[in-house]
């Protein structure tokens, strides 16, 4: 049995039933085989055994009172995975599907993503099975405050700096930051994704979506192609999807879809961004509202998707931007995309493609940007927010956006260089995993056995 297999089997025994975590770990460990063969020191220092085990895991209970006066109980997590490159950094997810395996998969991916940005940030992730949907503002506030009464003791601007993710946006960050400040009696940059009024960075809201499109642009430029005039499909209608659509429109592409957990919109004239923002960011309503205001568009509920597929990926397109959630794009979806001529997939979401779908994209050598590279613009801009907070300056939107685009180019080049070194220049899964891992592994060796 190889070293990588040994570690993977150990992981399955020691962390039972964490399927999403195994999926993320297996992809990284498989990619590392050629690197391990070239660098025996990683085995000597047991880097793989150490890197798959979080440095610290905090599991806690949160009680709060709903609007009916009833007690509610939620399970909450913060996984501080790896601090070799800097303070733990990664978002908080509030969604009923959250469990230890989901947070560990996200935290594990975050280590390599953060390393790829070239910035000084370690990897972490957290969240709760709390469901913000249908809750009043007061309920959201009470939950966020209760959540912070435990989390505050574990985080800090040089220790662990959370941000948003699914179900956690500016409103939730505001409530959590407020409680943190009250508890520690200090005004400090312990969160990123803060409101612009009190320490946020211009460009952070847009960064993940914009970054994913910049990454696609890099991949396509390497093929002498561009997004201009091209039909694009986008899944999701949250933060990442919205700003992916915005940047696609800036670049003259034609984004024609978006979705939520109930269904999807196809708008052949191009998604009406102002309408989408009004429905999702202001009114917080479902996508059925979109077709009421724009009858030329079509709404398809998930019950009407072809069985075993995500309807988004059956829509013919040149490029696809999965921007909703993990495992939303399976082998059949990948086959549908390719059969319809799709040439580029840039992942705004974390691990949206199943392993079979990823393998097909890699085998067919389309321009495929795996999430840990393509969606790293969000965390990179979070680090820019930390830098501005620490030096008490504010950069302009244009300055932040220019830095973001340069960071995405650097990530593309770093992943491409590593992929080329190992003989598969277009395989950015291989390149991103190897380059992301190597920097962390070398830092762990240099910092001794801690
Ligand atoms: P939001 O909560 O803003 O939006 C999530 C979107 O995805 C919503 O449209 C939601 O629909 C949909 N969605 C969520 N879960 C499911 C599901 N199980 N099935 C179908 N649709 C689903 O989150 P973000 O836009 O911030 O995050 C989207 C993805 O991007 C996640 O994978 C996240 O980890 C990743 N990401 C986010 C970053 C950020 O900066 N925000 C940074 C890097 C990665 P509905 O409203 O119906 O639930």
In short:
The chain is an alpha/beta fold and 450 residues long.
How is this structure best described in words?
The protein has 450 residues and is an alpha/beta fold. Among the domains are: 54-188, Rossmann fold (3-Layer(aba) Sandwich); 207-374, NAD(P)-binding Rossmann-like Domain (Rossmann fold). It has 18 helices and 13 strands. It has helices at residues 3-14, 19-31, 33-38, 41-44, 47-51, 100-116, 137-151, 170-184, 204-221, 239-250, 273-282, 288-293, 331-339, 355-364, 371-374, 377-391, 397-421, 428-446, and strands at residues 56-65, 71-82, 88-94, 123-128, 160-163, 231-234, 254-255, 257-260, 263-266, 298-301, 319-321, 344-346, 367-369. The strands form three sheets. Strands 1-2-4-3-5 form a five-stranded mixed beta sheet. The chain has a five-stranded parallel beta sheet with strand order 7-6-11-12-13, with helices on both faces. α6 (100-116) packs across α18 (428-446), α13 runs parallel beside α14 (355-364) and α16 (377-391) crosses α17. The model has no long low-confidence stretch (mean pLDDT 97). The structure holds NADPH dihydro-nicotinamide-adenine-dinucleotide phosphate. NADPH dihydro-nicotinamide-adenine-dinucleotide phosphate binds at residues 164-167, 208, 236-241, 260-262, 323-325, 348-350, 375, 378.
How are the SSEs placed, and which strands pair?
Layout: H1 3-14, H2 19-31, H3 33-38, H4 41-44, H5 47-51, E1 56-65, E2 71-82, E3 88-94, H6 100-116, E4 123-128, H7 137-151, E5 160-163, H8 170-184, H9 204-221, E6 231-234, H10 239-250, E7 254-255, E8 257-260, E9 263-266, H11 273-282, H12 288-293, E10 298-301, E11 319-321, H13 331-339, E12 344-346, H14 355-364, E13 367-369, H15 371-374, H16 377-391, H17 397-421, H18 428-446
The structure holds NADPH dihydro-nicotinamide-adenine-dinucleotide phosphate.
């Amino acid at each position: 049995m190889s070293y990588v297999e040994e570690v993977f089997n150990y992981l399955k025994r020691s962390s039972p039933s964490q399927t999403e975590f195994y999926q993320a770990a297996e992809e990284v460990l498989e990619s590392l085989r050629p690197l391990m063969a070239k660098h025996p020191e990683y085995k000597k220092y047991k880097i793989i055994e150490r890197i798959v085990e979080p440095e610290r895991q905090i599991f806690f209970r949160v009680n709060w009172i709903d609007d009916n006066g009833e007690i509610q109980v939620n399970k909450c997590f913060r996984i501080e995975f790896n601090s070799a490159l800097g303070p733990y950094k990664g978002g908080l997810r509030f969604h009923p599907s959250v469990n230890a395996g989901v947070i560990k998969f996200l935290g594990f991916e975050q280590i390599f993503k953060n390393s790829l940005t070239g910035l000084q940030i370690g990897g972490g992730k957290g969240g709760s099975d709390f469901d913000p949907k249908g809750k009043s503002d007061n309920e959201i506030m009470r939950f966020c405050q209760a959540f912070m009464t435990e989390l505050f003791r574990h985080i800090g601007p040089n220790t662990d700096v959370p941000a948003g993710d699914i179900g956690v946006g500016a409103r939730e960050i505001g409530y959590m930051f407020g409680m943190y400040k009250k508890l520690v009696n200090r005004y400090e940059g312990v969160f990123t994704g803060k409101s612009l009024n009190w320490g946020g960075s211009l460009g952070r809201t847009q960064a993940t979506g914009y970054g994913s499109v910049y990454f696609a642009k890099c991949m396509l430029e390497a093929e002498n192609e561009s997004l201009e005039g091209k039909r694009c499909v986008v899944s999701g209608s949250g933060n990442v999807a919205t700003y992916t659509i915005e940047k696609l429109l800036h670049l003259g592409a034609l984004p024609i879809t978006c979705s939520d957990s109930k269904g999807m919109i196809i708008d052949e004239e191009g998604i009406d961004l102002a309408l989408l923002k009004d429905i999702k960011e202001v009114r917080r309503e479902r996508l059925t509202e979109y077709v009421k205001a724009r009858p030329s568009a079509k709404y398809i509920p998930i019950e009407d998707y072809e069985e075993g597929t995500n309807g988004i990926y059956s829509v013919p397109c040149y490029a696809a931007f999965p921007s909703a959630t993990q495992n939303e794009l399976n082998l059949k979806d990948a086959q549908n995309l390719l059969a319809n001529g799709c040439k580029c997939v840039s992942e705004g979401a974390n691990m949206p493609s199943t392993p079979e779908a990823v393998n097909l994209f890699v085998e067919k050598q389309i321009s495929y940007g795996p999430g840990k590279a393509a969606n790293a613009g969000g965390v990179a801009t979070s680090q820019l927010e930390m830098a501005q907070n620490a030096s008490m300056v504010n950069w302009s939107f244009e300055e932040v956006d220019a830095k973001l685009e340069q960071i995405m180019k650097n990530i593309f080049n770093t992943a491409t260089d590593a992929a080329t070194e190992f003989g598969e220049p277009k395989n950015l899964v291989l390149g991103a995993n190897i380059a992301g891992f190597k920097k962390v592994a070398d830092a762990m060796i240099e910092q001794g056995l801690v």
